[in-house]
Specification:
The structure is a homodimer.
Chain A: H1 15-22, H2 26-34, E1 41-43, E2 46-48, H3 51-65, H4 70-79, H5 87-133
The first copy, chain A, binds a DNA duplex through residues 14-16, 25-28, 30-31, 35, 44-47, 69-71.
DNA sequence: GCAAAGGTTTACGTTAACGTAAACGTAAAC
DNA sequence: GTTTACGTTTACGTTAACGTAAACCTTTGC
């Protein structure tokens, strides 16, 4: 028994559907394809995106939010993909993973301190507001 | 009694000292000045950077690591600076702070998930390595 | 006195990541 | 049958964040 009606997932997406969902332009999606980050199927001339394509796009945009370049995002996404062949490749992959982890930890620290400063700034702003508002 | 010899901080820095410390070029530092992010003193024609200037530079680079544009970084840095005058300004400041906080929280989530995926990727790589190495 | 080390301004070049627009195909809607 | 909506390719334009290079001071060591 296949479970049904559990938030059915579309089998494919058009380019404008994806553009709408992620609030980007179709130009952007085609640009990502041009850069080798996506390779949707074609129905005639028209691009047809699979759920996997959609996930890749999602990962690209997550990378963007973290300030990664498209090249970096592609590297990271390919890390999680199949087809890592020989031993040297795997060694290099492990190194890249370590680098990525270090960078993310740095970002984490940066976020922590920035959050703290935002707290301070908000407190000062509210204090200043109180002073200017009462009386 | 002023405590002395507790990691004495220089009273000023040259442009190349800062460039070396943060591993950027002098061109970059001048560029930031051009964009209004720094305004060092001058000794004759030569730029002289105070410890405060150095901190600002540090904040700019932290912003870069988080994928912020220079304009965004300037905004954030100015948030933590003095001179917020009237009530409307303060209101807008509080809004910006809230936006920033939301963005940082999104980045936090992104980092969490990416970290998890890195763990997976590493595990798979190590498993694959083990398979290819033994026998 | 002069070469080397650091500083300056001015200005053109470059790369990433798209925006914008033209010119065209196709399929559904009226 | 033609507007409307959506898709395509091709190509030139734009912005941010610097790189690179020329042409020029000024101080310091020899």
């Amino acid at each position: 028994m296949k479970p049904d009606r559990i938030a059915a997932e579309p089998a494919s997406y058009s380019i404008s559907e994806l553009a709408r969902e992620f609030d980007i332009t179709t130009r952007t999606i085609r640009f990502y394809e041009d850069k080798g980050l996506l390779s949707p199927a074609r129905r005639g001339q028209t691009r047809v995106y699979s759920p996997e394509d959609r996930v890749r796009l999602k990962l690209i945009l997550r990378g963007k939010r973290l300030g990664f370049s498209l090249d970096e995002s592609r590297e990271i996404i390919d890390m999680y993909d199949p087809a890592h062949g020989n031993v040297e490749q795997l060694q290099r992959l492990l190194e890249r993973i370590e680098q990525q982890r270090a960078q993310l930890q740095q970002q984490l620290r940066d976020i922590q301190s920035l959050m703290g400063e935002l707290d301070d700034a908000e407190a000062r702003a509210r204090a200043s507001l109180a002073r200017n508002t009462d009386s």
